[in-house]
Write a structure and sequence with these properties.
- Helix 7 packs across helix 8.
- The chain is of the alpha/beta class.
- It has 13 helices and five strands.
- The mean pLDDT is 84.
- It is elongated.
- It has a five-stranded parallel beta sheet with strand order 2-1-3-4-5, with helices on both faces.
């Protein structure tokens, strides 16, 4: 009996020491919800203003990775609408944060947009917004922030993931298992493709359901939602060995958004004749200024169409 108690105490102390070492010497895999505020420019959260107010949600393609402030789709959208409507009271605020998925974007919507006086919410969707582009491209821990969608043993992991060493063990175990399934060295693209096949994973289920929830809450808060597909020109052109799977994945996301009440902009279809490598930054997957301007024009066209229907 005493040996059993001693062994149990030994294990507990050992685990506490491991946890302390992880917290002292290793960075967390995930961040907390309070850190979802690193927007490109300060936004006028909750400020009541006359005019047309638009919130742009998304990841690095919305944030505008590798381009200047005046080259983002948010900037171009505001300029285009001001010119076409002949008025200056057009406000487009960029809530894009690099590395986020639909999970994080839902919480940004809940915290900063839902109760504010925006007229339109534009959700820009890239193919890794349901599944991570790479193992460390997850901002919120799904076992903690997707509790509503957990099943079976996932409910236990909600509690265990409070421990840093458990969190890290799960991430790196997942990385190893994914590597074994892929049968090749993992790259961001091959990892993402593997995760697209795991449609029963917690992250996938959670992102899909939160997209539905966001669409409904946008309508309930008297706003209008627009879902914009951001096609990956790099993957379509030469990197991706599974174009059919990516196309099917994007179609599924658009159908889910449409059922949730979003207006849909299928950029791949509407810009098919002009989409090519000249619209992305060299040796990168992100769009250049010209690419973001084309997307902004599509969004502006749709907003103007929706405004006409209101009259």
């Amino acid at each position: 009996m005493k040996k059993g108690i001693f062994l149990l105490l030994y294990i507990v102390v050992l685990l506490l020491l491991i946890e302390a070492a992880c917290r002292l010497f290793m960075s967390p895999v995930y961040i907390g919800i309070e850190d979802l505020k690193n927007f490109r420019k300060p936004v006028n959260l909750g400020e009541n203003r006359a005019g047309i107010k638009i919130a742009m949600l998304g990841d690095s393609f919305t944030y505008g990775s590798k381009v200047n402030d005046e080259e983002t789709s948010s900037f171009y959208l505001a300029e285009i609408l001001r010119e076409r409507l002949g008025r200056e009271d057009i406000y487009v605020e960029n809530f894009g944060i690099s590395g986020t998925s639909t999970v994080e974007q839902y919480y940004i919507f809940e915290r900063y947009i839902k109760s504010s006086d925006y007229d339109f919410v534009v959700l820009n969707f890239f193919i890794d917004d349901f599944t991570p582009y790479y193992y460390n491209n997850s901002v919120l821990n799904p076992y903690i922030f997707c509790r509503e969608y957990e099943e079976g043993a996932e409910r236990l992991l909600y509690y265990l993931n409070r421990l840093r060493f458990v969190e890290m063990s799960i991430v790196y175990t997942d990385l190893f298992i994914t590597y074994m399934h892929a049968g090749v060295s993992l790259t961001p693209v091959s990892y993402m493709i593997q995760k697209m096949m795991e449609k029963d994973s917690l992250r996938y289920r959670c992102a899909r359901e939160l997209l539905i929830k966001m669409g409904k809450e946008i309508i309930q808060s008297n706003k209008k939602g627009i879902f914009v597909l951001i096609p990956s020109l790099t993957l379509y052109d030469f990197q991706n060995p599974y174009p059919e799977e990516i196309a099917g994945y994007e179609t599924m996301a658009m159908l889910t958004a449409k059922r949730s009440g979003f207006e849909i902009i299928d950029t791949l279809t509407e810009l098919r004749d002009v989409l090519d490598q000249r619209l992305i930054i060299q040796n990168d997957i992100h769009y250049n200024a010209r690419g973001y301007e084309l997307i902004a024009k599509l969004i502006a066209d749709r907003i103007l169409e929706m405004m006409k229907k209101q009259i």
